[in-house]
Specification:
By secondary structure, the chain is α+β, with helices and mostly antiparallel strands. It has 2 helices and 4 strands, in the order βααβββ. The relative contact order is 0.22.
């Protein structure tokens, strides 16, 4: 297990909340399933932060949440031993919005 700390952009909480509420409106329990799978993916990132390769924006990586059209967008800061979660981003949304600065 890695010893990286995790920080998130302040808007990540609303990313989670918006997706959760939308899925719960579609089907009771689906929002909970989304949150569970997102947490599992974040745990995977914390355990092995380099498992996903860098994308077109230098330093950013993306992990797809299983069964949902969302990506966890993050950066690794090896010298600080930290992971910065930039966004929980719907794949159909404007891609520029997923690259938030720490």
């Amino acid at each position: 297990m890695s010893n990286y700390s995790v920080e998130a952009h302040p808007d990540v909480e609303s990313d989670y909340g918006d997706a959760y509420h939308w899925y719960e409106l579609q089907l009771a329990g689906l929002g909970e399933r989304f949150l569970k799978q997102a947490r599992q993916k974040i745990d995977e990132i914390i355990t092995s932060p380099e498992i996903y390769g860098e994308k077109e924006r230098k330093g950013y990586r993306e992990a797809k949440i299983d069964d949902f059209p969302y990506l966890i967008v993050y950066r690794i800061f090896p010298k600080r031993k930290s992971i910065f979660i930039s966004a929980i981003h719907h794949e159909k949304m404007d891609p520029k919005k997923k690259y938030r600065k720490p």
